[in-house]
Specification:
- This protein is of the alpha/beta class.
- The chain has ten helices and ten strands.
- The strands form two sheets. Strands 1, 2, 4, 5, 7, 8, 9 and 10 form an eight-stranded mixed beta sheet that branches.
- A hairpin with a 6-residue loop joins β7 and β8.
- About 2% of the residues have low confidence.
- Keywords: Hydrolase, Lipid degradation, Lipid metabolism.
- It comes from Streptomyces ortus.
- This is Patatin-like phospholipase family protein.
Length: 328
């Protein structure tokens, strides 16, 4: 057994590769003390923080019905789900996202419930060896990245719930993950209301500001880390990753949105590239190569899904051979 922290990058359907990598690390005997994730990375991070092992994570990913994730909205009484493209276009205009994101939210909630995890209180951790300056709001097994576009800031949930007058331990884990999944223009954004003032904030995908927060658990008290941090990436560097990040066909109907798509691509991938160029970051990162899997390619066949998971498994296998677990 070897302790480690784990940080998982966002990447939509490419998260199948993330799952494969995590499965291999769990098979190797890693025990993850803390996990952080953005977007789809937050899903796998939440499941492992809830106590899933390698085989259970594999089974859960196999049961996931990808085709149900793009859930068309019903605007008023019109049966919009039966009108492809038109539904997405109207949803973009009226609700700022082509799809509801309700199905994946419910699925995450149900899977976590099987592990008896509902709120962050179920993921509380106490460790006397933590950094001396670690706040009480930061003593949780899971950190989920989201972006508050109203306030213009990165959210690290549950660490930042106090900014909204909320107690971290009372907040839903599934709700936090759904906020992190709000790919701009693809899924409808979420709303987070301040309990004291009633002010609403619009929340979108954490990848807008931090798609790969590999440094989130680094010590700040000058002491040596007690264990390693492992990161898993599934997006290629720019410019290679640009075409796959937001391939939403409906955006072609709106030239302005195409420009915004390019801006978002740079924000999500480019924001992390500066620190990824540092050798110490590359050394603790598992990069999964998924050349044929688009971020929103929810129509993958079963063999294609299995291949994506296997590629992640192989990438992590190469890592554990290069960096074996610490002897105990």
């Amino acid at each position: 057994m070897s302790d480690a922290d784990l940080v998982l990058e966002g990447g939509g359907v490419r998260g199948l590769g993330t799952a494969g990598a995590v499965i291999r690390l769990l098979e190797e005997g890693y025990t993850f003390q803390r996990l952080a994730g953005t977007s789809v990375g937050a899903i796998a991070a939440a499941f492992v923080a809830a106590g899933m092992g390698a085989e259970e994570l594999r089974e859960v990913m196999e049961e996931l019905e990808l085709s149900l994730i793009p859930d068309r909205d019903r605007l008023g009484r019109w049966p919009m789900p039966g009108v492809p493209m038109l539904s997405e276009g109207l949803s973009l205009l009226r609700r700022h996202g082509a799809y509801q994101g309700a199905w994946i939210h419910g699925w995450i909630r149900d899977v976590l419930a099987r592990k008896k995890v509902t709120t962050f209180a179920d993921l509380r951790r106490q460790d006397s060896g933590d950094s001396a300056g670690l706040a009480e709001d930061q003593k949780y097994k899971l950190v989920v990245m989201a972006t508050d576009v109203t306030r213009g800031r990165l959210l690290r949930l549950p660490w930042d719930y106090h900014l909204y007058g909320r107690r971290p331990e009372d907040q839903s884990v599934a709700d936090a993950v759904r906020m992190s999944l709000s790919i701009p223009f693809y899924f409808q954004p979420c709303t987070l209301t301040h309990c004291g003032t009633g002010q609403d904030s619009v929340i979108v995908d954490g990848g807008v500001l931090s798609n790969f927060p590999v440094e989130v658990f680094d010590r700040t008290d000058g002491e040596k880390s007690r264990w390693r941090t492992i990161g898993v990436r599934v997006l290629p560097d720019l410019p290679a990753g640009a075409a796959q990040l937001f391939p939403l066909t409906a955006l072609k109907l709106f030239p302005l949105l195409q420009l915004l798509q390019e801006v978002m691509t740079t924000a999500v991938v480019g924001n992390d590239q500066s620190h990824l160029e540092r050798s110490e970051v590359r050394e603790r990162t598992i990069a999964v190569d998924l050349p044929d899997v688009g971020v929103t390619n929810f129509g993958l066949s079963l063999p294609e899904r299995q291949e994506a998971v296997h590629r992640g498994w192989q990438a992590a296998d190469a890592y554990v051979r290069r960096c074996p677990t610490d002897p105990r």
